[in-house]
Amino acid sequence: MYFEEFFVGQHFKLNPIILTSQEIYEFAHRYDPQPIHIDPEFAKNGIFKGIIASGFHTLSMVWSEWIRTNRFGTEIIGGTGLDFVQWTAPVRPGDTLYADVEVTETLPSSKGNRGLVALKFTVTNQKDETVLVTQGRVYLKRKGD
Fold first, then answer.
1. CA dist., res. 142 & res. 119, Å (int)
2. Following CA atoms 78, 79, 80, 82 in sequence, which dihedral angle do they give, to the nearest 10 degrees?
3. Burial class (CB in 10 A: 0-12, 13-18, 19+), 73
4. Rg of the chain's alpha carbons, rounded to an integer?
5. 137: CB partners within 8 A, 6+ apart
6. What residues are paired with 135 via a beta bridge?
7. What is the tens place of the pLDDT at every residue in 60-103?
8. Which of 70, 108, 134, 144 has most Cβ atoms within 10 angstroms of its Cβ?
9. For 7-32, what is the mean pLDDT?
């Protein structure tokens, strides 16, 4: 999609995401090897009473599902970063995550051949608890350029 095809207030729903115990362990073992993610004995005695997914894993899975929608296509130029990331509840093995992506801002570039789009991701689990809220910005090509 080109910059002009996004508008403030527009929403997209992503396919549900299920995180398995094995996926949680593999991601955490490699990228976030904290005991709350990889040590069942430690985790069951901790504040969460069991293994939870790394917040970075949750963020990565949601971003991956967004990219699979191919909304950016070949019109993407690149991201500028995240405005914020809030992990608001733990994600546990077997949870099903649902993501709503909202366009919160569109800003044409003074260079004319691109525009900046802000996307807010709100992720809930099967209990309708919000587990992640984040917003990122990306430059996209404009039509005719």
1. 17
2. 180
3. exposed
4. 17
5. 79, 80, 81, 83, 105, 116, 117, 118, 119
6. 84, 120
7. 999 999 999 999 999 999 999 999 999 999 999 999 999 999 99
8. 134
9. 97
